[in-house]
Amino acid sequence: MTNDIESPESRPLASRRLPWLLAMGALMIYVLTLNHWASVLNVSQVARVSGWTWHPELSNPIYYLITLPLGLLPAASVPVALNILSAVCAALVLCQLARCVALLPHDRTHDQREREISDGAVFTGKFSWVPPVLAVCLCGLQLSFWEHATNGTSEMLDLLLIAFVVRSLLEYRYHGRERWLTRAAFVMGAGMASNAVMIAYFPLFLAALIWIRGISFFNIKFLVRTLLFGLAGLSLYLLLPIITSLKTPELASFWAGLTTNVYWQVDFLQKFSRKALVLFSLTSLVPIFLISIRWASYFGDTSQTGQLFATISFHVVHAFFLGAIFWVALDPPFSPRNAGYPYVCLPFYFFGALSAGYFSGYFLLVFGPLIERRMRRAPTPIIDTLHKVSTVAVLAMLVITPVALVWRNQAEIRLTNGSMLKDYAANLVAGLPAKAVLVSDEPARQFFVQAWITSAGRSKDYVVLNSSWLKWDTYHRRLREQYGNLWPLPDKIEGRQSFTPPMLIALLTDVSKSNQVYYLHPSFGYYFEVFHAEPSSLVYALKSYPTGQLLPPSLTTEALAQNESFFTKLADSSLKPILAVTHRPTEANQYVGEGPLRKIRLRQHSNMTALLLGMHYSRAYNSWGVEAQKAGQLDSAARWFELATQLNPGNVVAERNLEFNRKLKAGQIPPVEMPRAVEDLFGTGRSWDQVLSANGPFDEPGLCLMQGFLYVQSGLYRQAAQYFDRVRAISETELTSRIWLAQLQLMANQPDAALALTDEIHAHTNRFELNTTNQIELLTVEAAAHFARNDSTQAVQLIEKALAADPRDEQVLNTALKLYNQYGQISNSLEIVERQLAVASNNVAALLNKSSLCIQLGNHDLAITTLNRLLATETNNAAALLNRAIAYLGANRLNEAKADYEYLVQQHPTAYQLYYGLSDVALRQGDTNAAIRYTETYLTNAPPDIPEYQAMGARLRLMLGEKQK
């Protein structure tokens, strides 16, 4: 009798040619839907290959090696080349998947063993081509897989490594050739060096090896060979650290590069949620575990009913997993993509598709005809019907799967791979001149602009740089290599690891003298203390402050009109596809389909590119809305604030600005109240700077006041002044902003402007709630302004008037003393101290202040008397002892001075000020050796940037020279 059983080798369509045909078909789909520019998914890879980054490459050595030749291409071609590379990798993944499905064993259950007796128990029926095709459709048309296949990312290459390892294990199980295991070991090791996900799968790989080989796994020869191949793959860990240590050793040594990569991988694995892993495994790894077990024919129950129940249970479980995998491929809310892991979800979809291929083959087999020589019962009508129904169901699923996935995902692919991101980059550069220096502190935005400039052939017209990287000398050298003389190298760059903010401000100031400088987005920080940002479409021209001005000039009518026109046109064009994603006002719009389709509860996809661009545009519209509101264009501002909330429903800043705008339009100016804590506004886990960076500036007065205080604390005085001035302009009754603005104007040497504010307060005392605290603050500002104008008479009159109102008020006395000390009114200061002592004769602070003033006036004896009085009550007061030592020295009472200094040295051996005094004492006493010793100790402990340091160094050299003579 002829043997009808076929092996995969005798059925080339299913096992050999079919995977390649499917891969070619998939490649055609990916090429037709390919992204022809950079994307949110691949912009970092585009930047690295194009040479726009400067950080050392420390991770993913395999992707680095494969993409290295692409760096030789013109920069404009790099995005397409990377995307084609991903498409090829995706096609190869699907080829491996189809081959894996064809090699899956179908002898796991009794029913399968009755029907399939081919070598290796692989499925060889006439429908054996169905499972590979179904698996390829489930995986290849799933949205995340499709996105990565048409956008150049490293994830697809990483998945190819996983697919090859799985395929190698199945090839070994079928052929028994150990070379497949050595290949798998090498690829597994290389993959672990490149991708942390492979490390997570290593225990499963090891378990699969033991499961497949059984006791022969412990063969020493096999273990050694496999281990050596695995170590050879792992040696790729060393590649990038070696390259970095040779090319840029100042950035990372070999050991630092190696440990950094390992740290990143460990950190990634620790952050992965265990709950998410369990959830995703239900439709990926759990089915693989089910497939791996060869179940017994009977489970201790020989009755026909028991066997029937076990058989039905197997059918139900297989059907459940097949349906669940199909459901997850459509991306319900609990799928890997929608559960917060869009970048590491591909392996889960791959294993799910692999399992689906097995389950579809299971139903085609177990409800198919029995092998004739194994038939123990005649076919019945019920079995024939089940055979037909199951076959039709699987074939129907084969048709439904690609149709459903294309229907579900094709619009999303068109949106992701369309012109939306390129349009955004074009809109960014729309407000730029022909040539400029472009600055950003957001790498992604910087790379988008560089990609557009490169594709437009204008790379030589713009210098694009990242402000947060400018502190590194290596980055400056990289800019010089990229732009030549368009970027100046700072002086003495060699050997310097970083630049301080003042140095960078000076550098950018020099650059701005010969170039127009633009910031690519609204921002804040120390650069904006020297430059004010003038809106120009989506970007901001950095312009130096006019000499002597604290506040930036107001926008001209022409600038307001040009920007208003730009934002109006933009809202009517590029924003429509983004708003379709970000602004879904009703719950019904969250789900796909109508009628019965609504019941499957599949949510609309939230396009990642549209959401990101929505956030960027939202910040821009909120920022422009603030400018329009400042200019009094309330209706226009309201429109932009509302649009900002539609573009990014999470923009809490725009929401607050819109709410305040409505109050302004209604003529309501609420009391200016600051929130008690940032968490009251934004919730925990979000800082003030993060909210402003993501959403743009506030224009609600209470928040403006708080922002001003935060800027003052950070030393950003000009930016603080803008917010205080804005509060002053909004509220006629708010006092704090006026006092702080006046203080900042004094710091900017603008006493007349400060006095104008204090005059306003005095002229409208009925508007402001003056209490003791802010009256003293007002006195401080007003008197300081008069002192700054060299009008000390008026300043003293103000202070004396306040003292006359309450001569014993401690706050007023302290304020007067501070002002007199600050402006060199020593005699007046001494008078204030005497008044304090008249109130409290043992006032320690007053006694100490009196001694200091006496020393400044040269009255050392009175200083000593005062200090003795203080030390009678506080014997160990270090400040008093130091002042007495100084007074003794001034009075030439050297032994007493030395005694006080030596006592203090015992208590504070590293206080360099003490050694300065001891050196003086020793010199006056003619003890050169002691003077040298004390001076050396001073130089050891003192900071080198204080004025006396250089003088003490000169003193030491002089003493050493005289000693040698």
Written description of the protein model:
By secondary structure, this protein is mainly alpha-helical. Among the domains are: 405 residues, no CATH class; 111 residues, no CATH class; 57 residues, no CATH class. It is built from 44 helices and 5 strands. Strands 2-1-3-5-4 form a 5-stranded mixed sheet, with helices on both faces. A hairpin with a 2-residue loop joins β4 and β5. α8 packs parallel to α10, α12 packs across α13 and α26 packs antiparallel against α27. It is elongated.
Secondary structure elements and pairings:
Layout: H1 12-32, H2 43-50, H3 61-67, H4 78-103, H5 110-115, H6 130-140, H7 143-149, H8 155-175, H9 179-194, H10 196-213, H11 220-234, H12 239-247, H13 254-271, H14 274-281, H15 285-292, H16 304-329, H17 346-366, H18 381-416, H19 420-429, E1 436-440, H20 443-455, E2 462-466, H21 473-483, H22 501-514, E3 517-519, E4 531-536, E5 539-544, H23 557-571, H24 576-582, H25 608-630, H26 634-647, H27 652-665, H28 679-682, H29 688-695, H30 701-713, H31 717-730, H32 736-747, H33 751-763, H34 772-788, H35 792-805, H36 810-822, H37 826-839, H38 844-857, H39 860-871, H40 878-890, H41 894-907, H42 912-924, H43 928-941, H44 947-964
Helix pairs in contact: 1-4, 1-6, 2-20, 4-6, 4-7, 4-8, 4-17, 6-17, 6-18, 8-9, 8-10, 9-10, 9-11, 12-13, 15-17, 16-17, 17-18, 19-20, 23-25, 24-25, 25-26, 25-27, 26-27, 30-31, 31-32, 32-33, 32-34, 33-34, 34-35, 34-36, 36-37, 37-38, 38-39, 38-40, 39-40, 40-41, 40-42, 41-42, 42-43, 43-44
